[in-house]
Amino acid sequence: MIWVIALMVIIMLAGAITVLFVESHVSAIAATSAVSLALSVLFVILQAPDVAMTEAVVGSGLSTVILALALFRINKKHGKQPSEQNDA
Amino acid sequence: MRNVSALVFASGLAFLLLVITWQFVVGGAPMLIGEAILQQGADKIGSANLVTSVVLGYRGIDTLGEIAILFTASTATSLVLSSLSAKTSSSKKVVIRDDGTILASSASLFFPLLITLGMYIILHGHLTPGGGFQGGVILAAAFFLPLLAVPGRGVNHSGLALVEGFAGASFIIIGIIALFQGNAFLQPFFGHGEMGSLVSAGTLPLLYTAVGLKVGAELSGLLANLAEIGEIVPESTDLQASSMQTESNGS
Amino acid sequence: MTTDLIHWLLYGGAMGLIVIGIVGVVTLNNIFRIVLALAIAEAGANLLLVIAGYRFDAIAPILTGSSANQLMVDPVPQAMVLTSIVIGVGIQALALALVVKVYQNYKTLDIGEIHQQLSTDIDNSSGVISLLSSEQPAGERPLPEPSAQHETAQLNQGGDK
């Protein structure tokens, strides 16, 4: 059990750090989704199945779709410029 | 310079949070309210899933406020996005575009399955993990899938608003009926039934159905707005719409 | 020993998510990434709430036939987190709509450029010469008041001619 917790915490923190430092926006969205997925596994271990279901459906499903749609809408106007001029 | 100050701030924050963490306990929560709810919840509410009895029974007004926040956020999103899509709508062609056979046929295959799953999760919210929020999100995904396959088809925003308003009003009306029966607002009535059967726990399944329909309608409208899928254009008002467009082009 | 380790893993995960999210909000320059960092901080807060209601050797708060006299975890934090997650996605959608709107008006996602253009726009619309412009030479910086500065600028232009 403790190995599962350790693995999930490591995946979660690594995904969160990836969001801050990765170049492309699409990878950042995927990393956010991975953070939510690992978090929902932790919720199952913590005996919270309701919260785990919500996190899996909302956090790694719907929220990813919303982020991807917004990114698509930003990119559509001017080609692929904003994904290249990134944060420092 | 800005990064250095940000790092100093972050390390200070991490240190403070670690000091707080040192004093927390894990695995031995001091449950004062929770213990009482665990003791009495089965007799007073009659729902097998105690989280549901907290969400709708003990803290029903919280859920009402949460629905109001979600409604506000969804309305504000459509307001912000529609003001800019009105400018670009004149140049947008209303063409039924087909994004491929595989996507379209799998969308029509998954649509009934997702509807069934969503309704199952909503209706069994008082027995098993799940409920109105999760099932509502699945319903929104089910209605968004055909729009993703055929984006030019449009979405019936007035129908969505009708479902949303009806669900929100029925949530409040159930609460007010409880008031007229001499109970507190949103207190479950109709008797408890046999715990574990589908018809049990008083009004909780009705309330969760209302929550699920409302969340599903709001989120599918929000997704359609973000994906720039326009309103369904009926045949009769087509001329009016085109004349309005030419007016806006002229001005 | 195992209890201590689980304690530090769980709380370290939750606090780590909160700290990473707040650091992202403070340091990142791209407003789209700031929305992502906000979502991560929110996930950490949710995890912290659920950990606060956890008990060892307890089962999920769902009554079945075989769960007569067993310990159960606290249902109240779980109900709070349940609503918090759904509110979070609504707020995220609103923030993204504002990001799209800002990008359509200013054609950039960089927060410094947005701030500069915004203050220039506000100054122009109120009829004041912009004080925040980085293109303005530093020699003219000690300026008394906007109106007086306007006159001196005109005087300087006249003197050049």
Apparent shape of chain B: globular
Q: What is the number of independent domains of chain C? A: 2
Q: Mean pLDDT score of chain B, rounded?
A: 77
Give the biggest sheet of chain B: none
In angstroms, what is the radius of gyration of chain C? 27 Å
Mean pLDDT across every amino acid position of chain C: 79
Rg of chain B, alpha carbons: 24 Å
Instruction: Summarize the helix and strand pattern of chain C as letters.
Output: HHHHH
Question: Mind telling me the CATH class of the largest domain in chain C?
Answer: Mainly Alpha
Classification by helices and strands of chain C: mainly alpha
The outline of chain C comes out as: elongated
Per the CATH scheme, the topology name of the largest domain in chain C is: Helix Hairpins
Would you mind describing this structure in some detail?
The complex is a heterotrimer of chains A (88), B (251) and C (161). Chain A contains four helices and no strands. Chain A has 88 residues and is an all-alpha fold. Chain A has a domain at 24-77. In chain A, helix 1 runs antiparallel to helix 2 (25-45). The longest helix of chain A has 29 residues, at 49-77. Chain A starts with a helix and ends with a helix. With 251 residues, chain B is mainly α. The mean pLDDT of chain C is 79. The longest helix of chain C is centred in the middle third of the chain and has 32 residues, at 75-106. In chain C, 68% of the residues lie in helices and 0% in strands. With 161 residues, chain C is mostly helical. At the B-C interface, helix 1, helix 2, helix 3, helix 4 and helix 8 of B face helix 1 and helix 3 of C.
